[in-house]
Amino acid sequence: MSSLPLGPSAPKLNVSVLNGIIRDDGTPFTSYPTSSNISAVLSSQGFPTAAILNSTAFPIPANCNTTLSIFNLTSRVATDAMFRCLGQSTAYTAAKNGIFEKVYAYEFDRAYQIAEWSPNPPACEAPVTPSHPFGDPNESFYKCHAGELYAVFGTAVRQGRPPRDQDDVPFEQYIVDTWSAFARTGNPVPEKAFLDARGFTNTSRFVEAAGPWEEVGKNERPVRILDVKSRSEGWREMEQCEVLGQGLGYYDTAS
Fold this sequence. Notes:
Blueprint: E1 13-22, H1 38-44, H2 49-53, H3 66-96, E2 100-108, H4 149-153, H5 168-185, H6 192-198, H7 201-210, E3 223-226, E4 231-233, H8 238-243
Parallel strand pairs: 1-2, 2-3
Antiparallel strand pairs: 3-4
Helix pairs in contact: 5-7
């Protein structure tokens, strides 16, 4: 982390920051359990077992497959503890203390796992169905670490990954244009005139449907959820982050 001082005297850097994760970022970093002893599994993976089990924030998902239920739990804990909570606290604290020009937060809810790395298979892959031979991205599956890379770099087809449905290519175009806009202007929302001049109608459609993307600190819905139906929401898993000792104020030593 930066050693910059917090509070009113903190320097303001003339750069904007785009900060976020993918919904199940921690899934690849938790092992599929071989035991049905929840306490033992949590402890073996280094999680704060007592805090988790003594709270109601992390209920065990109902499933007749006990080990799968525990994996669902550890995936959620790993995502919160390793990615979401600290990322949200970073964005919140940076915005509160005016460290950067602007701070934007996002979370991917759509994923296409890279072929070179798909841990705990097939957890991170969209389920194959008769109507979706390459996987149905609208079915339930884990949106894992690295699952946003094809979209961010626009390389799914070029790297031999076929579109799974009619939304994969337009969504990828939208994300490429979003990241390009941020690199170009410091704002992740592409300018309408820029899109119109180039005939980028898919991105225009996504941008219009998603509505305004406000910087962190400007409203109560600071997180842009990136999906086929992108939208803005509040901070996610706030209760869970508090249980893990990583709430929004984790980095804010000024409070």
